[in-house]
Each structure stands twice: as structure tokens, then as C-alpha cells.
Amino acid sequence: MIGGLVEREGRHGRSRPFANAVGMVFGALLLLAAGPGFAEAGRTLPSTVIAPLAAGDEPIVVTTHRVLTAHGLLSYEARAGRILIRNEETGEIHGRIFFVSYTVPPSRSKRPIFFAWNGGPTVPSNLINMEGFGPRRLTGQGMVDNAETLLAESDLVFFDPIETGFSRPEKPEFAPEFLNMKGDVATTAEFIRAYRARFGAEEQPLFVGGESYGAFRAAAVSDFLSQRGVKLAGTILISGDIPNIPMPIPFYNAMHVPARTATAFHYHKLPPELMKDRDATLRQVNDWVTSQYMPALTNIEHLSDAEREAIAQSLARYTGLSPDHIDRRTLVVGVNDYRAEFFGGDGTRTLAGLDTRILQSGPSYYARGDQVDEYLRGELGYSTDLAYSPFEKGYMPTPGPLRRPNYRQWLYNQDGVTPETVAAVAADGEVTLLARSNPPWIVDAMRREPDLRVFVATGRFDPLNMCEGDVAATATLESSLSARIINRCYEGGHVMYRDEPVRVQMSRELAEFIHLAAR
């Protein structure tokens, strides 16, 4: 290799060194000559490889592309590779984290950089990349340009946590370091540090964000970085039940009701007078929740039988459930019971766990392995023989134990969370106890960093989250904090950007948020 750069001949071709810088200049001239029609051809040109810099490093594949965005034609580079997680004292490699990043050269120190991921806690970041905000978007017809990509406003880095995608611990005994909340947060922060150092991105305004459990990770990483004096411009929390403003349990149980009212409206299961105007109905139910239902739950031990019956009847009226399915002792319907009982509890129709407009037997929320393979190994040229977890299954020693799913190995060890809390969450599907038990990460980070801004995105039909609850929780903070939090409720489910109008609107509002917070 010469100058740390090699040219690769196609997806499976051999590598040969550039003779000298003339080759690179000639390649650049070819790109310029290609003109505006280069968008598709750019994906078939040979890629370059950034050579390893230190012992154990791996080469990083770089491809050049153009995407037609809502703001015009955008030229960009895609990088695909693995960043090493090393022991700070010894330099020993403990893990290799796979990432895909998109940059717009020439890099400018003031151009923001956004590190983003999905949740799980043990799922890769292909969804938020390939269906949300990356420059290429997966559709039923294959990959297409994403005209609303956030790349128009910010460089993007999507990473896969250890034991997902192509990310792996260096040795089996290192895996427990990564498969726990505190280790995951520290690893994510180290990945961000190492990436920024590797590519000279330390001066770019920094944003982090995640979806579902990834919102927990983003909030905790924000707290972690702020404690270490790393300046953070913005945090984006998607479908995360605003995990950083702990509220009383009755608050969560009550504030999940408006989403269920929206679901009942969607299926025409509300009384006629509530089916006339959804916005008016949602305002009405929110008033009832805050003025009657939440106080009743707070003082439930002192309610008379008549008061319990009145609350149960109203709850049934606003949620589309039969009054018979509401426990008069607790006056609370858990999310799994709600999904199962919504159509009468006969077992043939159950609301999906990520979008109540979809039945449990409906379409999957996840891409197919061949689609991910074609993009990563094909379009981006990352021609590894590693299995992309969980879509691909690789070798396990035989005879021997089957590989345990990552989520079964995961340890929630953040401060405030007990084994009993985790067991309760696993038993009934509610994330309320976990969200409430989490430390106030984002609040602490905002208090340390007076310029940090936060964007909270929630799906109207997400049974695990609460649009009105996010707003109400934010309102409990002092104005110096609440004024820096933007709450948005979108007409989607847990993976809200799967709805085309939502993706377009959300991308526009996130771009505006990044632009404002990066100043």
C-alpha cells in the first residue's frame, strides 16, 4: 500500500496500490466529468481503502456517491469499517465496532456530525440508516435515493453495538464488558471519541441520538460525555418514553391512555360522539386523564366502589375496551393485556407491539438479510465474510451449546434499576418501571452543558410511549431546561419514519433542530 490508499476492482476483485497521487487526481477528474447524471454510476465505481494506522487496525472502505436531495445534488463519501475498542492502559483490543458513515467533502469544522443508532438494546442500526435518515433508503423496489436525508445538514455515523451487525468482541470472555448498560454507554462514548480522532472530526458540532432503547443510550451517553467535558450540541431521543424525567408510576399509567384513544379512533371503536373530531377527542381525554384518572390512581386505596366503577367506565369509553376487561382493584390495563383484549380477547386478533394500527400477524418491522447484504457488501463494498447478526447465522462449534440471543445475555445495571424491576418489565411488557428507574441522564447533562438542546420524537400509535406524557413531563422542569427541549408527536408507530409523510416531516424538523443547535 502506498500513502495508505488502495483501489479495489469491484466487489470481489483484487486490490492494487495507486501508483501515485496522479491516479487519485485522475479519478477525481472522472467524477467531475460524469456530471449531474452520476448518481447511479457513482455506486459502481471502484472503491478506495483507508489503510490500517496501528497494530490490529482494519482497513476502512470508502466509496463516492451523489444523491439528489430536496436541496439539490449532494456529493458524499461513504465509509464502512470497524473501529477498535482498546484498553486505555494496555492498548489491548477488546472489541471491533462496525460503522457506516457519510461525509460531505471537503470537511468543514463547523459542519455538524450526528452519531445515531437503533435500540433493542442489542440490534444493529440498519433501520435508522437505511429506512430513516441515511442518503439511501430501502423500499419495496430496493434502494433509492433519500431526498430528505439528514446528510444535507450533517455528517452521519451509524454504528452497530458489539454482538450486532459485523461488530464483535475480540475474545469471548470480553463479551460481558459490552452486554450491559454501563459498559454499552462507555463503549459508545469510546467509539465516538475514537471515530472523531481517526477522522479529524473533533471540532465538528456533536450530536447523538437513538431510537427505543437507543434513546436510553443517547441520554446516558450525553450524561457520560458531559461529565468528561466533551461539548455536545444536541441529543435526539426517538421512541424512548422520555427516560430522563422520572415521574410517579400513576403518571405513566395515566399518560399512556391518549395513545390508546387514538388507536380506538383509528379502528372506529369509540362512542359516536367521540368519533367526530379526533383532535377534540384527544384534548378531552387528556383533560380527563390529568384531572380525574391520574388523581384517582394516586389515591386508589381511598376510592369507593362507586368511584372505581366510574373511573373504569370512563377508561373503557376512551380506550375502546370492554369495561369487563378493566380490573377494578388497580384500574390499570397493562400494555400486553391492552393489545390482547382490544378486539375482545378471543386470541385471533392482537395489536402489534410496535404500532397499534397493525395486527401482531401483520408485516414485519425488519428488513431482510439479503437487502442489508446487498447494500453493505454490494453498494458500499464492505466485502467481509463475517455474518451480519441477527440477519445471518454463522458457525458455532458443534457439538456445543446453541448461541444465546443477545437480549438474554443483557444486564441492565444502571443506577436505580433492580433485578425485580427488570423481571417486572420482562413479565408484562411495560417499560414504565425501567424508564422511571433510570437516572435523570439528560437533565443532568443539560445542567452541566447550558447550550445542549434535546429533540424528543414520539409516535402517536406507539403503545410503549406517550406524546402528551412527554410534554407534561417536560413542563415539570425549570424553564432554563424545558425551553431547550422540543417535543414532537408524529402519526406513526415505534419506528415512526416508516410512514412516508412522517419521515419527510420528521427529517425536515430534525434538520432544523440540528441547524439551530449547531450554531
Which structural class best describes the helix and strand composition? alpha/beta
Largest sheet: 13 strands, mixed
Q: Quick check: average pLDDT?
A: 87
Task: Tell me the radius of gyration.
Answer: 24 Å
Could you name the ranges where pLDDT drops below 50 across 5 or more consecutive residues? Answer: 1-44
| Oligomerization state | single chain
Helical fraction equals 25-40%
| Inertia-based shape | globular
Number of strands: 15
Amino-to-carboxy terminus distance: 40 Å
Strand content range: 15-25%
In short:
By secondary structure, this protein is an alpha/beta fold.
Structure description:
The longest helix is centred in the middle third of the chain and has 21 residues. The N terminus is likely disordered. This protein has 19 helices and 15 strands. It is globular. 37% of the residues lie in helices and 17% in strands. The two termini are 40 Å apart. Helix 5 crosses helix 6, helix 7 runs antiparallel to helix 9 and helix 8 packs antiparallel against helix 9. The protein is of the alpha/beta class and 519 residues long. It has a domain of 93 residues. The strands form 2 sheets. Strands 1, 2, 3, 4, 5, 6, 7, 10, 11, 12, 13, 14 and 15 form a 13-stranded mixed β-sheet that branches. A two-stranded antiparallel sheet has the order 8-9.
